[in-house]
Amino acid sequence: MAPTKSAEMKIMAGEDSDGHGQHFLLEKAEDLGEDSEDVGEEQINISQLFIIDHRGAFSIFWTGVDTALCLLSSYIYMWFGAFNDADSHDLHVTTSVCFEVTFLLLMLKKFLTSYSNQGEAKPVRNLHQIAMRYLRGEFIRDLIPLLPVTFIFDGERRMVKLLYVIKVVRVLNGFKVFDTHKIY
Fold first, then answer.
1. For 33-75, how does the pLDDT look when each residue is reduced to its tens digit (9 = 90+)?
2. What are the helix (H) ranges across 83-138?
């Protein structure tokens, strides 16, 4: 009798030792005719599939985009605050919406990006720990400029000019690239 190949996969739900996250236990076995051999067990945390490696090309690229957009948008918002006129209102709205949607996506990326604690080689890949670190750190600084205050007070030109100053706070994120004491 010729050996036949078939694969069997069992999925069982469980939790990690901390009680965080949903895990799945996958058992793979190959049946080669009369001889059966267990290939092994492998634990996969479903939330780990969504974690972005902070040292990977994707994260590094989008961190560069975030830095460049923080600097560019700060200067454009300063221009809008200084020279806000009725003729260019549509340009202001379109530009603001494009920037704000991009910054919202970058904020969501920060909730999913791993990090390494100082002095540790192994990155933290737990969604709860990543989210708590971001919420305690840069979240408020990213959220405040994202608030649509310029659209809420759209009727009052003088107020809108002042509210663009809130969005200029992002220049601080852009200046992180010039923080040279972290290089050494």
1. 444 444 444 456 777 788 999 999 999 999 899 999 999 999 9
2. 89-112, 127-136
